[in-house]
C-alpha cells in the first residue's frame, strides 16, 4: 500500500456510512436484498425511506460482488434525496457520499474516492455538530433505519441511534416513526420490569408519532396491535378502520392488521388480510410465518374437540401450516424459530428423522441466537423429546436449559410447567425420588421462590445424602436467604 492510499484509507475510516458501521457480514443477504427491493418497488416507508433503501441495497450488492449495480444504486440514492429534499439535501447525502467514496476506493479509483471524501468533509464543516463524538441527526437516523432493517440482533442499537437523532430534532416525523417501530420490535426484552397494568413505552411513542403524522397507516395498525394486547379494543378497532381506509394495499398494514385479528382469534379475517398482503410482496418470510401460525391455531382448535375431532381436518390444517413454514424458511433460511416449529410438525407426521435433523441444525446455530430465541428452541426441542420421542431424560435437559435462561417469556413458563409435571408424576410413584425433588427446587428457584426451592433441595438431599449438586444448591440458597433477611 502506498503512502497516498494509506492516507486515503485513514480518511475513509473516519466516514459514517454502511462500510464503517460494522454491519455483520454473515447476515442473510438474499433475504435482506429481497426486502429492500420490495421497499423500493412499493415505495414503502417515510419520505426518505426509498433513498435509504437504495443506499443500503448498494452496500448489499457490494458484498455480493456486484459493484456496477452498487454504483448505479448509489446514484439513484443521490438522485432520490435531491428530488425529495431539495435545498435540504446536503446533510442527508453524507452516508451516500461516504458509501460512494468507499466503493470508488475498492474499485481502485482513488481520485474519485478522495473527491467524495472531500464532499463529506465540506458538508461537516458547513454543519458542525459541536463535538467530534457527535453525528448529525440525519446520520444517526440513517444508521438507525439500517440497524432496524438489518436483523433482530441490531434492534437495540436502532433504538439508541433513533434516540440520538431525536435529541436535536425532537419533532422529526421520520425519526419519531422509526423510534416507535424500534420500540415496538424490542419490547419483548424490556417488558419484564413493567407492571401488568402499565403501558409499554411503544404505546406512548406511537401516539406521539401519529400526532406528528396522523395519516401513517402502518403506525396506526401497529398501535392497534399494542392496544389490543392491553384490551383497549375500541381505540384499537378505530385505528384499524383508519389504517385500512388510508392505505389498504400497503402490505405492512395488512400484516399488522392480520396479526391483530390472529391475536384475537379472528383467524379467517387474519388469513384473508395476510393473503392480500402476499399478493404485493410474495417473498415475505414474516407473512408466510404469520399465515402458518393462523393455520396452526386452526389445527389446535380442531384437535381440542377430542374425542370428536375430525382427523382429516387436522391433517389438512397441518399440511397448510407446514407449507407456510416451509415457504418462510425457504425465503429466510436463518429463520430458526420457524425451523423449530416446522420440526415439531414433521414430528406430528412421524417424520422423526427430519425433525431431529432440523433441531440439531438449530442447536448448532444457538451461539448466534439471542437468549429469547435460544429459550424458544430449547422449549420446542423439549416438546419433541417429551411428546414424540418419549425420551424424558432429554426433555428434562432442554426444558431445564430453557428455564435457566433469565427471560420471563411464555416459553419459560412452558418449560417450568412441563418440568413440574414430570417431577410430580415421578413423585406420585416414588415420594423418595431425590432427582424429582431437586427438579422442583430448580423450578422454584428460577421462578424466584428461594424459600420453597431450599425446602425442595433439603428434601432431595435427605433422599440422596451424598449428592454434592443438591448440597451446593442448598448452601447457595441459604446464603441468599440470609442476605435478603439481613437487608
Report on the architecture of this protein.
This protein is an all-alpha fold and 487 residues long. It contains 24 helices and no strands. The protein is globular and about 80 Å long. The chain starts with a helix and ends with a helix.
| Largest β-sheet summary | none
User: What's the total count of β strands?
Assistant: 0
Tell me, briefly, the overall form: globular
- Indicate the percent of residues in helices: over 70%
Order of helices and strands: HHHHHHHHHHHHHHHHHHHHHHHH
Can you count the helices? 24
How much β-strand is present in the residues?
Answer: under 5%
Runs with pLDDT <50, length 5+? 189-195
Average pLDDT number: 92
Name the features.
single chain, 487 residues, mainly alpha
Short description:
It contains 24 helices and no strands.
Describe how the helices and strands are arranged:
Layout: H1 3-13, H2 29-41, H3 49-63, H4 67-85, H5 94-106, H6 110-126, H7 137-150, H8 155-168, H9 173-190, H10 201-212, H11 217-229, H12 233-246, H13 251-263, H14 267-280, H15 285-303, H16 311-331, H17 336-348, H18 352-365, H19 371-389, H20 392-404, H21 410-429, H22 434-446, H23 450-463, H24 468-486
Helix pairs in contact: 1-6, 2-3, 3-4, 3-5, 4-5, 5-6, 7-8, 7-9, 8-9, 9-10, 10-11, 11-12, 11-13, 13-14, 13-15, 14-15, 15-16, 16-17, 17-18, 17-19, 18-19, 19-20, 19-21, 20-21, 21-22, 22-23, 23-24
Amino acid at each position: 500500500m502506498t503512502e497516498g492510499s494509506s492516507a486515503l484509507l485513514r480518511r475513509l475510516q473516519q466516514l459514517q456510512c454502511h462500510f464503517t458501521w460494522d454491519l455483520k457480514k454473515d447476515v442473510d443477504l438474499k433475504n435482506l436484498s429481497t426486502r429492500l427491493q420490495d421497499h423500493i418497488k412499493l415505495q414503502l416507508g417515510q419520505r426518505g425511506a426509498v433513498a435509504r433503501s437504495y443506499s443500503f441495497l448498494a452496500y448489499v450488492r457490494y458484498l455480493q460482488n456486484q459493484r456496477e449495480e452498487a454504483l448505479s444504486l448509489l446514484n439513484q440514492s443521490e438522485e432520490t434525496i435531491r428530488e425529495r429534499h431539495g435545498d435540504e439535501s446536503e446533510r442527508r447525502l453524507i452516508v451516500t457520499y461516504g458509501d460512494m467514496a468507499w466503493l470508488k476506493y475498492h474499485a481502485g479509483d482513488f481520485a474519485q474516492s478522495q473527491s467524495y471524501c472531500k464532499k463529506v468533509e465540506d458538508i461537516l464543516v458547513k454543519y458542525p455538530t459541536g463535538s467530534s463524538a457527535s453525528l448529525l441527526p440525519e446520520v444517526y437516523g440513517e444508521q438507525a433505519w439500517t440497524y432496524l432493517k438489518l436483523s433482530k440482533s441490531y434492534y437495540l442499537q436502532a433504538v439508541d441511534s433513533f434516540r440520538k437523532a431525536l435529541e436535536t430534532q425532537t419533532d422529526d416525523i421520520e425519526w419519531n416513526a422509526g423510534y416507535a417501530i424500534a420500540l415496538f420490535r424490542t419490547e419483548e426484552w424490556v417488558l419484564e420490569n413493567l407492571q401488568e397494568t402499565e403501558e409499554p413505552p411503544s404505546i406512548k411513542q406511537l401516539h406521539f408519532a401519529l400526532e406528528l403524522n396522523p395519516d401513517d397507516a402502518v403506525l396506526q395498525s401497529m398501535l392497534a396491535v399494542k392496544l389490543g394486547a392491553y384490551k383497549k379494543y375500541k381505540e384499537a378497532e378505530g385505528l384499524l378502520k383508519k389504517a385500512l381506509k388510508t392505505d389498504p394495499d400497503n402490505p405492512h398494514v395488512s400484516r399488522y392488521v392480520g396479526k391483530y385479528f390472529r391475536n384475537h382469534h379472528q383467524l379467517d379475517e387474519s388469513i384473508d388480510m395476510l393473503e392480500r398482503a402476499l399478493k404485493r410482496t410474495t417473498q415475505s418470510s414474516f407473512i408466510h410465518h404469520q399465515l402458518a401460525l393462523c393455520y396452526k391455531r386452526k389445527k389446535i382448535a380442531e384437535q381440542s374437540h377430542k374425542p370428536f375431532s375430525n382427523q382429516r381436518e387436522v391433517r389438512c390444517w397441518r399440511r397448510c401450516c407446514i407449507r407456510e413454514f416451509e415457504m418462510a424458511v425457504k425465503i429466510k433460511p436463518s429463520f430458526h424459530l420457524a425451523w423449530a416449529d416446522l420440526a415439531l410438525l414433521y414430528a406430528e407426521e412421524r417424520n422423526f428423522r427430519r425433525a431431529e435433523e432440523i433441531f440439531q441444525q438449530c442447536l448448532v446455530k444457538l451461539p448466534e441466537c439471542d437468549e429469547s430465541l435460544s429459550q424458544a428452541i430449547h422449549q420446542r426441542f423439549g416438546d419433541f423429546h417429551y411428546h414424540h420421542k418419549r425420551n424424558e431424560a432429554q426433555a428434562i435437559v432442554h426444558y431445564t436449559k430453557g428455564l435457566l435462561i433469565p427471560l420471563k417469556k411464555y416459553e419459560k413458563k412452558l418449560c417450568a410447567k412441563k418440568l413440574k409435571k414430570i417431577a410430580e408424576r415421578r413423585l406420585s410413584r416414588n415420594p423418595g425420588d431425590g432427582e424429582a425433588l431437586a427438579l422442583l427446587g430448580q423450578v422454584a428457584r428460577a421462578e424466584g421462590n428461594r424459600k420453597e426451592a431450599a425446602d425442595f433441595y433439603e428434601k432431595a438431599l435427605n433422599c440422596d445424602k451424598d449428592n454434592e449438586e443438591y448440597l451446593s444448591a442448598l448452601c447457595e440458597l441459604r446464603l441468599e436467604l440470609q442476605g435478603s433477611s439481613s437487608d
